Amino acid sequence: MAKALDASREGINKWESGANEPRGHRRQAYRHLLVGLAGMYGAKGDTRWLNHGQATGPTTEDSNRKGE
């Protein structure tokens, strides 16, 4: 994924942990990837944040539902 997004593994880890955010073309590419995966695998919970490009992600409540 890092190679496809022209980013480092460390950078991707920071995005996914919430420590940092992708910017510019990487943000658009990451969003595109996440929207595609959500469509392919049937995302659960509120996915509206994917459509707005905002920094907010899934809620804690959504994260707690992963094990269901």
Decide which structural class fits the backbone: mainly alpha
Quantity of strands, as a count:
0
Specify the number of helices.
4
Order of helices and strands: HHHH
The largest β sheet comes out as: none
Helix share of residues?
A: 40-55%
- Rg is 12 Å
Give the integer mean of the pLDDT values: 76
Net shape: globular
| Percent of residues in β-strands | under 5%
End-to-end distance:
27 Å
> Which regions have little confidence, pLDDT < 50, spanning 5+ residues?
55-68
Name the features:
54% helix, globular, disordered C terminus, 68 residues, mainly alpha
Record the SSE blueprint.
Elements lengths: L8 H9 L6 H18 L6 H5 L7 H5 L4
Question: How would you sum up this structure, described in words?
Answer:
The chain has 68 residues and is mainly alpha-helical. Helices cover 54% and strands 0% of the residues.
In summary, what is this structure?
The protein is mainly α. It has helices at residues 9-17, 24-41, 48-52, 60-64.
